[in-house]
């Protein structure tokens, strides 16, 4: 009984409309993923081919999934307690191994990547199951369901690490697909069946803040890389303009996500009677393209900074236009999930970027960057003016 009481003390008490602050240890844990995001963007930069893009996509989806699953568990458990802190410290070690193997995950260190990833996913979930008191049957059943699904995918990840070439790629594609469909399938397992939506209740404000912090990580990584790249270049007029365009573009992305969306999302999920459903859709799935768009834009910024003149090649066009495009698609869907309507400003920005893509080959990398930054500024200002002057449930319809 005493052991059950100790386990029960690890759980947060979820109170509707209450926002638990993100703890310092969670912020410390997130630092590992600054490195992971940097590794992903640099790997894409150096392997910008169709096959390289597929490789990086698989690795990015894995990195995001291990982070967001940890955010779910630390939403339910109390990171201020020593056992949970020790879990996060162990996860940091696994995250560093995972991050260092990203550039060569499809070469010599694939097995290390697979072992680190599988250990983090299975180990964290096993800890959650162990920490759950026996009388909390619904939570224990949820942990068993998730552990079952992740154990199956772990076999696929490690099997991929033991193979090479196409076999590794296909095994890892199956593994990451298996994991991404698992929440939508509500982690069905024989005998236990589907998990209930009630069992997925979260402290909404905490979940919203955790995902917003990952967006900050991605934006911060882009700014750091831009600054480091710019410091090594000759400060010509083109390079200075490229640097300013990259910074203003990052500010526009921040404005689009944080000025209205992040706060509205935190408020909506905190008051929602189905916080688990909203967290699964808006913060687990729909944040994936938001973060991916920022990472792709970071690749563009480095390309433009180093080669601002001449005609834009394919990788410059794909990253410079595709990054903001993927970001806006993710953001418009995220805000639709929390507000219930598609924002006209974001839709217009998506259309303008698609039109720009048609003419992109005729522009230099610098002017292409300036054009995409201008479009993002228009979206940010349009949303701010629209939602600032009208009731939020009526604006931009």
Structural features, described:
With 397 residues, the chain is an all-alpha fold. It has 2 domains: 2-200, no CATH class; 204-389, I/LWEQ domain. It is built from 14 helices and no strands. Helix 2 crosses helix 8 (204-231) and helix 9 (237-271) packs antiparallel against helix 11. The relative contact order is 0.10.
- Sheet of most strands: none
The count of DSSP E runs of length 2 or more, i.e. the number of strands, is: 0
Number of helices: 14
Q: What average pLDDT do the residues reach?
A: 90
State the end-to-end distance.
Answer: 56 Å
**Range of helix content:** over 70%
Structural class: mainly alpha
Radius of gyration: 21 Å
Strand content: under 5%
Show unreliable segments: 389-395
- In N-to-C order, the SSE pattern is HHHHHHHHHHHHHH
Globally, the shape reads globular
The tally of domains stands at: 2
């Amino acid at each position: 009984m005493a052991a059950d009481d100790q386990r029960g003390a690890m759980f947060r008490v979820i109170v509707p409309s209450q926002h638990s602050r993100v703890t310092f240890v969670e912020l410390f844990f997130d630092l590992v993923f600054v490195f992971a995001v940097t590794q992903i963007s640099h790997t894409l930069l150096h392997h910008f081919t169709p096959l390289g893009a597929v490789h990086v996509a698989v690795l990015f989806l894995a990195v995001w999934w291990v982070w967001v699953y940890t955010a779910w568990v630390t939403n339910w458990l109390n990171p201020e307690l020593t056992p949970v802190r020790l879990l996060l410290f162990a996860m940091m070690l696994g995250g560093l191994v995972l991050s260092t193997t990203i550039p060569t995950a499809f070469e010599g260190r694939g097995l290390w990547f697979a072992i680190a990833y599988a250990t983090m996913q299975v180990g964290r979930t096993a800890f959650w199951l162990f920490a759950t008191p026996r009388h909390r049957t619904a939570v224990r059943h949820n942990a068993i369901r998730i552990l079952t699904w992740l154990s199956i995918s772990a076999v696929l990840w490690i099997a991929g690490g033991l193979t090479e070439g196409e076999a590794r790629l296909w095994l890892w594609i199956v593994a990451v697909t298996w994991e991404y469909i698992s929440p939508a399938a509500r982690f069905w397992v024989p005998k236990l069946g589907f998990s209930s939506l009630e069992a997925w209740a979260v402290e909404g404000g905490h979940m919203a803040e955790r995902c917003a912090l990952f967006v900050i990580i991605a934006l911060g990584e882009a700014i750091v890389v831009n600054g480091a790249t710019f410091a090594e270049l000759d400060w010509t007029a083109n390079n200075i303009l490229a640097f300013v365009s990259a910074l203003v573009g990052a500010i526009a992305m921040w404005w689009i996500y944080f000025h209205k969306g992040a706060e509205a999302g935190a408020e909506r999920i905190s008051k929602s009677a189905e916080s688990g459903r909203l967290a699964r859709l808006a913060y687990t799935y729909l944040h994936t393209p938001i973060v991916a768009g920022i990472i792709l834009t970071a690749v563009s910024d480095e390309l433009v900074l180093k080669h601002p003149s001449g005609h834009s090649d394919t990788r410059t066009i794909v990253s410079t236009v595709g990054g903001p495009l993927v970001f806006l698609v993710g953001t418009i869907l995220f805000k639709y999930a929390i507000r219930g309507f598609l924002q006209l400003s974001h839709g217009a920005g998506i259309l303008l970027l698609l039109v720009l893509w048609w003419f992109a080959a005729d522009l230099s990398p610098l002017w292409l960057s300036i054009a995409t930054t201008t479009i993002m500024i228009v979206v940010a200002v349009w949303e701010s003016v629209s939602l600032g002057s009208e009731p939020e449930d009526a604006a931009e319809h």
